[in-house]
Each structure stands twice: as structure tokens, then as C-alpha cells.
């Protein structure tokens, strides 16, 4: 089935399909005392954990949780049971008529001092830069304390949750010979296939997945769509009829208020001249009742705490903590963003303590290409991160603006000049990178392949192992058309495993894992180009139909030791630097943006319009994450109404610059999330003249509680 022809959404509401809705708990933690059901008419029923024929858990990579709450509720929104029937409105009525009696249990939990059993996973790294031995601490002078001075900073960030442009929809149809066809938006089959087969007690090959229309970049999460697919499949198995999920508005436990904080503390030991002798970092993350891809998230947290700068001695502890929040998975947020953000703020404060400008401090500390990081971790051997940093500083005029914005305020006793700056302003700078590919290589197959087939009719079919959005499909078709001198109209795309592409059978499931923590363009595009070259050579020597394929295997030279953090954690890196210039409304302290600059080096740009559009959306999402509902346009600051989402996006002054690069295409999806928050909060701190310790920014903290004026 082609990407453009799959059955989807509107087509799954045909007569004969049962509607199935989950009953979700409104309690975050407690015991279920009693469930009272209303009278059920013929054709309607309920499904509970006792009806599951096989395993009762959704699992992947060693992490998982129960499909239903049997006697105890673990988080708000957890499913208690399912209600099904032929008519949607009646199913919703039955759902609202069910009465549940709870015995609430107060779950005491503090991120600062969690109980040992509340730690899902923990990792500590003690690293020393091999090229820079730790300087000896000078002996204390008479009358002075023996301890070296320290700089300690704490920061708290609320983890973002992606907004849904449309509701979750899943449908499962029982077919002949014991097969089940699974359809749904946001659904990633690689994540669910094993759990679904174990729950239904069928072979994995009995599950047929129709790929969704959405791109993985738009996916709000992995676990919740997978959970709904399990419910729909369970209904189809027990009733023998097609079942589609309906979720009442606001029922999905994915809202921004459900995701707890990530807390980071930085402690730097300083030498006599203010230099950093060593540092200690701790990161605690709300992992919910469980965390999928937990090892990957921990590794990325550790790397972001190291940042893009060279240090001497570093100790980092990262912990995923069990709470009463819904499960956390890798699609929920960029794990590296909070680490980069807190590090940039800490660096700004260290530079201020040394009476040094932040750009000089960061430029001197940033590592050069080919250099080795703490733990002997090599990055960016083909890209110079200083290029993007220099570019952003040039286009934003950072040095001059930062120096002018920190000038002392005029004496109030003097007559103010007509040119005096009365509005608090600030400009911030951030350097960060995006790692493409998994650090925890065991989470993915080592070999990724694509296939091409040229039929006797002159139609070229491209078989890819992963999902792709419309623009990505256009890029792939354009690359193949250019290489083979084909018309894009004669090129088709199909999602399939390599074996299935070559008629060797195999499991009927696609594998979008190359798009996880990288991008389809990064891996699949070069493979398509290589396969086209091979096909071009065979085209005039061999009869049609022709089939070729190319594989990508992570080279042994890019090996990485997770225990010692040595080697190459990613198969490629993209780099970006951002500068944010803003001013604050003197009354409300709401930020008004003058300009945002983002310079990126992410290899060759195959489609600049597509790349620029993707970065623009990412920048907007990052700004909204940082400011929450305090996002301000110039019109709002002047007293206007809160703008719509589209208006807010269009009012954001943004300039994106791509550096010319000869290296292969690399990912850019996390670049904005990793750079914009650091630059924005550095600018906020300069404008406020005081440290900012929490994300999202809340101007009420900096207003007088009685007068409402800026402190």
C-alpha cells in the first residue's frame, strides 16, 4: 500500500464498526473501591483487564506499564476499563454514567530528595579532560578559608508536551486467516508490534499495519497512540468486529499541566583567577510511572550537561524519577534542551563573575573541530562549531548590543537625555548541537536499507523502512528523478522492510526508527541516491524489472562506550548558534522581541524551503515553551488582545541562516529547541538584571505583590 493510498481517519467510520472508548481516572493516585455500571443494551459491553487473553502490559526496550488500572490508580488519565457499542453518542453516554468510587492516597514525592524506590534509572559520570590536567588548587592564605570559591546555580524547567492538531484515531479490523489490520494516526508500529502480539496471543506476522499519513516529526508521543491501538485490537479480538477508538475531549493524559519539572543544579569550583577547576552537575527528571527509551534519555541528558565547551574535571548525575505523571517517552521533548539551557545561563553568570563578556568567554571555551571532549568523546570532525557562533555574533551585532544594554542606568537626579534608554533590554547567545542517531545502539537495528524497483511499465518504486511527511517524500522523489532523469509522476513510494521489497516475505511492518533522534533526510536520502546510481548502471545492461538496494550500517569507527563515554556517540552532528534580542514592557515585564537569529550548519540542504519552514516551526515551539502564555507581540505589549497562534507565529521577527556545507545532509529538528531557550533566557536575565531560575518565564515573580510594578 502506498503512502498516498492508505485508508485513514474519515474512512474508518463506515457502518459496522464498533466505537470503543476508554474510561480514564480523574485521580492521580489511589485505590479503586467500586465501579458501578449502568444498564447495557444489546450490542454494548465493557472490557476490563480480566478479558485480556495474553500479556497485560505495554512494553518496549525493558520499560513498560499495565494496560489497565486493576486495583490502584498510578496517574491521572489511567484507563480503568473500555466501553464499546455501535453508536458513538450512546457509548459516550454510558461512559459518563459509570460511577467509580476511589480511596485517595496522597503520594508524597519530592524531586529534591526522592525515596530510593522512586528512582527509575540513574547514571553518574566522572570525567577528566585527557589533554588538560586539573590545575592544583592554591593553598589558602592566612586568615582565608581553605575551600575554593564556588558558583552554584539551580534551574527548573517544565517539560513540554506537543499540542495535537487533531485527535487520536485508531481502528483495528479482524481479517481472514487470523490477521488483524491496524490503522491510526500518530501510530508507530515498531513500538507496539511485540506488545500487541503478546496481548492478543498471535504471531507478530498476523498484524498488518497501514502507515499513517502524518510525519513522525508531528507525532506527540509513542506510548499513548500505542496504548489506544492495544485497546482497539483487544476489542476486535473479543467481539470479532472492527473497532475504532473514540477519545472524549481532554481525556488524553498529555496536557502541558501533566508533565512535571526537570531540575538542574550546576556547581563550579573556581580558581584564584576565577577559572573553573571542576564542576558538579545534577539533573533530575520527572519520568512518570515509567520512561520509554530511558537509557537514551539519560545519555542525552549527560551529553547536554557537558555542552559544547571544554572543561577540566566534571561529575554529572542524571536520574529519571518515578512520579504520578503519565509515562515519559523520547517523543515528548528534546532531552538535550534543558541541559543546554541551564549550562548557558551558568556560563553567563561565570563570565559576569570574571567581569568578562559572555561571547568572549564562550568563544574561548568552545571546542574546536577534531578536539576531544571530556571522556574522550569526539564531535563535529567535519563541521567547525565556531563558524555558526561567529556568524550569529556578526549578523546580530552581539558584542556592541550586549555592551550597550549593560551600561549603568542614568542618575535619577540628573535631567534625562532625550536619547536615554528607559526600556529594559537584553540580548542572549547560545551554542548547541543536535546528535543524529541513537546513542544506545541496541535500541535500533544496526542495518538500515532502502530498495528500488523499476518495472516494465517504466514506474520506479522506492521502498523505505520509515515514515515520511509530504515534503520529505517530495525531496526523495526529486533526488531519484534527478539521478535517473525520471519524471516525479512516475515515482512511487512504499513503506516496506527490505525483505518485503525484494519479494522474500518477511514481517509486514515498517520500521521508522532511523527517524528517531535523527531525520529521514539524514539517512534515507543518501541511500536513495546511491541506489539510483547503481540502478542507472544496470539500466541499459539488464532487462526490466530491475531491483537494487543499499544498506547503511554504523561504521565500527563510530563506536561508543556508554560506560566510559568514550568514542563517537552519534554518527553525525549538526550545529547551530542563536541570538535573541528583546525588550521588556516596563509595566508588565512581558518580553517583546526585536529579532531572533539562528545560524545552522546541518550539511547539504536538499530543500531550503522545507528546511527553513521546519526550523521556523521549531523556533516558534521553543519560544512558546519558554514563555508559555506570556508570549508577547508588539501589539500585545501596547495593550492589544492576546494574538491567535497563527498571529503569534507570524509576528515573531526571525532570521535563519544556513552555512554553506559540503558534508552529507544532517538533522535539524532539535536545533531550535537546543539553542533558542538558552539565548532567550540569557537575554531575559540581562533585561531583568536578576537571575531567572525557572522555565517557563513568569513575569509575576518580578513584579511587586502590592503595587504590581517591576521590582
Characterization of the model:
This protein has 711 residues and is of the alpha+beta class. Strands 3-7-1-14-11-12-13 form a 7-stranded mixed beta sheet. It is globular. Residues 1-12, 137-146, 408-412, 414-421, 498-509 and 631-646 have low confidence and may be disordered.
List keywords for this structure.
28 strands, 7-stranded mixed sheet, 711 residues, globular, 6-stranded mixed sheet, disordered N terminus, 15 helices, alpha+beta
**How does the major sheet shape up?**
7 strands, mixed
Could you give the order of strands across the largest sheet?
3-7-1-14-11-12-13
What is the CA-based Rg, rounded? 27 Å
Distance between the termini: 62 Å
> Based on CA inertia axes, which overall geometry fits?
globular
Helical amount: 25-40%
Number of helices: 15
What is the beta-strand fraction?
25-35%
Structural class: alpha+beta
Subunit arrangement of the protein = single chain
Overall pLDDT, averaged?
79
Low-confidence stretches: 1-12, 137-146, 408-412, 414-421, 498-509, 631-646
Q: Total strand count, please? A: 28
Amino acid at each position: 500500500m502506498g503512502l498516498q493510498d492508505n485508508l485513514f481517519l474519515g474512512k474508518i467510520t463506515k457502518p459496522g464498526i464498533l466505537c470503543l472508548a476508554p474510561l480514564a481516572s480523574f485521580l492521580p493516585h489511589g485505590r479503586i473501591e467500586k465501579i458501578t455500571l449502568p444498564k447495557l443494551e444489546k450490542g454494548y459491553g465493557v472490557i476490563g483487564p480480566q478479558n485480556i487473553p495474553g500479556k497485560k502490559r505495554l512494553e518496549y526496550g525493558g520499560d513498560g506499564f499495565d494496560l489497565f488500572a486493576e486495583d490502584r490508580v498510578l496517574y491521572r488519565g489511567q484507563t480503568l476499563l473500555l466501553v464499546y457499542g455501535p453508536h458513538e453518542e450512546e457509548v459516550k453516554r454510558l461512559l459518563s454514567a459509570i460511577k467509580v468510587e476511589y480511596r485517595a492516597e496522597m503520594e508524597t514525592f519530592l524531586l529534591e530528595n526522592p525515596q530510593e524506590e522512586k528512582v527509575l534509572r540513574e547514571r553518574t559520570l566522572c570525567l577528566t579532560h585527557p589533554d588538560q590536567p586539573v590545575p592544583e588548587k592554591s593553598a589558602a592564605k592566612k586568615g582565608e578559608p581553605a575551600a575554593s570559591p564556588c558558583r552554584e546555580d539551580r534551574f527548573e524547567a517544565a517539560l513540554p508536551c506537543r499540542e495535537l492538531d487533531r485527535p487520536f484515531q485508531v481502528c483495528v479490523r479482524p481479517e481472514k486467516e487470523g490477521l488483524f489490520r491496524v490503522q491510526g494516526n500518530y501510530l508507530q508500529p515498531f513500538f507496539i508490534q511485540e506488545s500487541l502480539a503478546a496481548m492478543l496471543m498471535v504471531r507478530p506476522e498476523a498484524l498488518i499495519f497501514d502507515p499513517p499519513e502524518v510525519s513522525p516529526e508531528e507525532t506527540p508521543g509513542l506510548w499513548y497512540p500505542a496504548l489506544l491501538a492495544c485497546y482497539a485490537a483487544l476489542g476486535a479480538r473479543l467481539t470479532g468486529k472492527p473497532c475504532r477508538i473514540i477519545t472524549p475531549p481532554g481525556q488524553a493524559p498529555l496536557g502541558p499541566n501533566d508533565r512535571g519539572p526537570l531540575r538542574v543544579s550546576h556547581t563550579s569550583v573556581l580558581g584564584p583567577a576565577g577559572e573553573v577547576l571542576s564542576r558538579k552537575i545534577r539533573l533530575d527528571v520527572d519520568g512518570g510511572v515509567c520512561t520509554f527509551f530511558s537509557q537514551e534519555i539519560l545519555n542525552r541528558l549527560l551529553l547536554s550537561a557537558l555542552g559544547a565547551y571544554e572543561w577540566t574535571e566534571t561529575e554529572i548525575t542524571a536520574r529519571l524519577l518515578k512520579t504520578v505523571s503519565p509515562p515519559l517517552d523520547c517523543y515528548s521533548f528534546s532531552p538535550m534542551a534543558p541541559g543546554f539551557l541551564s549550562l548557558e545561563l551558568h556560563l553567563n553568570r561565570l563570565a559576569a563573575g570574571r567581569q568578562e563578556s559572555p561571547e568572549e568567554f564562550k568563544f574561548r571555551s568552545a571546542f574546536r573541530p577534531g578536539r576531544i571532549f571530556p571522556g574522550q568523546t569526539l564531535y563535529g570532525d567535519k563541521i567547525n562549531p565556531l563558524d555558526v557562533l561567529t556568524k550569529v555574533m556578526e549578523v546580530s551585532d552581539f558584542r556592541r548590543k550586549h555592551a550597550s544594554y549593560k551600561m549603568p542606568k542614568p542618575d535619577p537626579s540628573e535631567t534625562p537625555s532625550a536619547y536615554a534608554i528607559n526600556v529594559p533590554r537584553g540580548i542572549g547567545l547560545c551554542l548547541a548541537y543536535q546528535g543524529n542517531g541513537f546513542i544506545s545502539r541496541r535500541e535500533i537495528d544496526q542495518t538500515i536499507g532502502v530498495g528500488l524497483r523499476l518495472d516494465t511499465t517504466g514506474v520506479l518504486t522506492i521502498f523505505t523502512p520509515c515514515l515520511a511527511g509530504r515534503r520529505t517524500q517530495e525531496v526523495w522523489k526529486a533526488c531519484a528523478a534527478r539521478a535517473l532523469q525520471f519524471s516525479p509522476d512516475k515515482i512511487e513510494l512504499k513503506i516496506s522492510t527490505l525483505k518485503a521489497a525484494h519479494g522474500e516475505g518477511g514481517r509486514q511492518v515498517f520500521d521508522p526508527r532511523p527517524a528517531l533522534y535523527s531525520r529521514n533526510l539524514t539517512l534515507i536520502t543518501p541511500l536513495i541516491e546511491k541506489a539510483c546510481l547503481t540502478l542507472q548502471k544496470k539500466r541499459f545492461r539488464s532487462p526490466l524489472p530491475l531491483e537494487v538496494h543499499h544498506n547503511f550500517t554504523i561504521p565500527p569507527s563510530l563506536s561508543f562506550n556508554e560506560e566510559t563515554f568514550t568514542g563517537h556517540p552519534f554518527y553525525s552532528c549538526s550545529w547551530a548558534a542563536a541570538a535573541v534580542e528583546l525588550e521588556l514592557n516596563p509595566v508588565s515585564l512581558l518580553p517583546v522581541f526585536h529579532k531572533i537569529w539562528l545560524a545552522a550548519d546541518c550539511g547539504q540542504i536538499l530543500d531550503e524551503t522545507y528546511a527553513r519552514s521546519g526550523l521556523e516551526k521549531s523556533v516558534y515551539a521553543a519560544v512558546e515553551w519558554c514563555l508559555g502564555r506570556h508570549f508577547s507581540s508588539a501589539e500585545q505589549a501596547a495593550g492589544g488582545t492576546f494574538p491567535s497562534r497563527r498571529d503569534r507565529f507570524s509576528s515573531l521577527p526571525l532570521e535563519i541562516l544556513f552555512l554553506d556545507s559540503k558534508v552529507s545532509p544532517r538533522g535539524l529538528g532539535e536545533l531550535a529547541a537546543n539553542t533558542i531557550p538558552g539565548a532567550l533566557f540569557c537575554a531575559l536575565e540581562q533585561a531583568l538584571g536578576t537571575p531567572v531560575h525557572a522555565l517557563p518565564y513568569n513575569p509575576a515573580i518580578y513584579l511587586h505583590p502590592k503595587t504590581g510594578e517591576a521590582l
